Amino acid sequence: MTKPASNLQIDSSRLWDTIHTTAQFGATPKGGVRRLTLGPEDKQVRDWFRAACENAGLDVQVDGLGNMFALRRGRDMSKPPLGLGSHLDTQPTGGKFDGILGTLAALEVIRTLNDAGIETELPLCVTNWTNEEGSRYAPAMMGSAAFVGDFTVDDILGRKDAAGISVAEALDSIGYRGDLPVGAQPFSGFLELHIEQGPILEAEGKTIGVVENGQGVLWYDGRITGFESHAGSTPMNLRRDALATLSEIVLAIEAIAVELGNAVGTVGEAVIASPSRNVIPGEIAFTIDARSADAAILAQLDERIRAAAAGIAAKRKVEVTLDLVWRKEPTHFDKTLVGAVESAANALGYANRRITSGAGHDACNLNAKVPTAMIFVPCKDGVSHNELEDATQTDCASGANVLLHTVLSLAGVAK
Ligand code: GLV
Ligand code: MN
Ligand code: MN
């Protein structure tokens, strides 16, 4: 029996169960998840996802970078499907929600439509994008970036992790280098549900964030070459200390981001080449992540970080190189789709506000090629990229209901 679409709700317990079932793949003792892209735990969750999609009657295809597309037929198969989903990989010390909530909610939407006997006009396509997190391989959002043509497939296949394993080797080792050409899957639009990963919704008591914009991103690989020498016998004024140089760079980045406003800057990785207690560090590799939602400020961040690094290098007589490995301009999501998300949230009676995403998302890449929008739900204390990341069953279900009703309004219910 077909139920009326207007008061349809997803199954909150079923969604919550899938979140906890999948959190076992890569579960950490502190209650988080370590599911690095293209590793054994990623294979486990991908296999689970493929089987769950097939059980829901979807036809699963995998492209040459391991992006997964699970198609539900629509009444009008001449039209491209509406895409919905996110990513299944996590940070090294990640949580149960970042990414996977969006893909599981998309699956829950399909299960709900199946149970209600509803066919949509447009086909629907549930997706899992490869390597959203960017911690094993740079850049982040690698699968969706190649999908929209920001990088060539060969470039991405050749990227190596810290152990020297290429993306191609990792894909082959888990059996997820598929036949579908990257970028070939058409979409008429794309929707991604995600936890906010920041504190705004919780602080304001809002259930839904209607995401309008996404921050632009700069990622650099840095290297400092000073000179190793004896920690006891080298006078302070004769040192060329790579770590002291990095310390100044870290503080300069912090000051630049604060001064510019609407900007953030982080040195998240730093490795001393041959660390020893009584050797002045001579060589350090480090990374910088700097972001702003304003394109002009992003450009100033780039200029000022480079100038600060050059000035500190000259003063300390060391060499500093900064290699820009990823630059993404700020995202402005599709006004029609953003409006559809807002209308669905209002129709369902959820307190909501428009919001800018601080984190990057596959949706930000897709927006360049396909009309795209995002839905945020609150997470506890705004914490993410941490094993303590948490969200409530009610908020996850509310987000999935907004996704469902946005899908119904965009994909149309077949008469
Ligand atoms: C992805 O998680 C990012 O925003 O770096
Ligand atoms: Mn994510
Ligand atoms: Mn993340």
Quickly describe the structure.
The chain has 415 residues and is an alpha+beta fold. The protein is built from 12 helices and 16 strands. The protein has 2 domains: 3-215 and 330-411, Zn peptidases (Aminopeptidase, 3-Layer(aba) Sandwich), CATH 3.40.630; 216-328, Alpha-Beta Plaits (2-Layer Sandwich).
The kinds of small molecule bound in this structure are: glyoxylic acid, manganese (II) ion
Q: How big is the Rg?
A: 23 Å
Just name the CATH architecture of the largest domain. 3-Layer(aba) Sandwich
Oligomer: single chain
Outline the low-pLDDT stretches. none
Question: Whole-Å distance between the termini?
Answer: 14 Å
How many structural domains can be distinguished in the coordinates?
A: 2
The number of distinct helices, counting runs of at least 4 residues, comes to 12
Series of H and E elements? HHEEEHEHHHEHEEEHEEEEHEEHEHEH
- CATH topology term of the largest domain: Aminopeptidase
Describe the biggest sheet? Answer: 9 strands, mixed
The count of DSSP E runs of length 2 or more, i.e. the number of strands, is: 16
Q: Could you report the average pLDDT, rounded to the nearest whole number? A: 97
Strand % is 15-25%
| Morphology | elongated
Q: What would you give as the CATH superfamily of the largest domain?
A: Zn peptidases
